[in-house]
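### Sample
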Amino acid sequence: MRGTTDNWPRLWNLTLQLGLLTCAMLFAAPAQAQDDRMTPIPVPAQPGAIELDTGKLPGAAAPEAWHMQYGSRFARNVSVATLTPYLPDPARATGAAVIVAPGGGFRTLSMENEGSEVAQALAAQGVAAFVLKYRLNQTPQDMDAFARAMNAMFSGAARRPPPGRQAVGEGIAPQLADSRAAFALVRRRAAEWHVDPSKVGMVGFSAGAMLTLATELTGSDARPAFIGIIYGPLSTVTVPANAPPMFVALAADDPFFGAGGFGLIESWRAAKRPVEFHLFEQGGHGFGMYPKPATSTGWFDEFRRWMAMHGWSR
């Protein structure tokens, strides 16, 4: 049954996960030489972004802010969710679509490495892609205060013993609402965007992977036709009888989820649902579309082949 207490990772509570994921995104540099400093930048123009109908995050006071890190753009204090389409040439469109959920611990969003660059690569394969900029937990406006708060959260969470399991989606209700609204929008405008409403999937990274899995397991009209879980937690869940095909990619040296076991894979297999799992020897956490001297850089090629095998991409 979806949404039960059986459907949340066993090893970490939500607070610990968010702390780890945020610190991973902010302080774990990619392998290539890149500036790891967080440099504030003006909120960029976001052409084509469509505001979702989930409203403003309740109680949000800090304005949306963006910064550069590792040569990539990140957003935080997002209080209004948007969806940005990246559409293929209609002559090449396969009819499939993917909602792309960047990661960042529900406190930041990796808008390029896990967002627009993924969407552009999908569109090149004939797949309509939509980057979901979902609402985030508020953080201090000042960049130094933000960094200190994240360090403090990480340290505090690391000292806490993990309590009992929580229900899938607990603590991320606004983000789940944004995900569902994104699916509703894509399916409502499917004819305009040359999308088959029955072929709308979702891929998520880190915290975005949690959101992707929760979107499927909590059940709703938003259920994806297929899901991609990219360096998310792989703990055991209860799998619906009609669970969609799932693609999973993780690096064995991921400092947060590399040693957590493969319960999610085993759950899908036990339920006799389609699953493909790639465990890369190296790559760390947050590799996304960054070029790295590791085989994890090839995750997208494997994802593309998997989609092509199912008839979703070229």
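The chain has a mean pLDDT of 87. This sample (Alpha/beta hydrolase) is used throughout the tutorial notebook.
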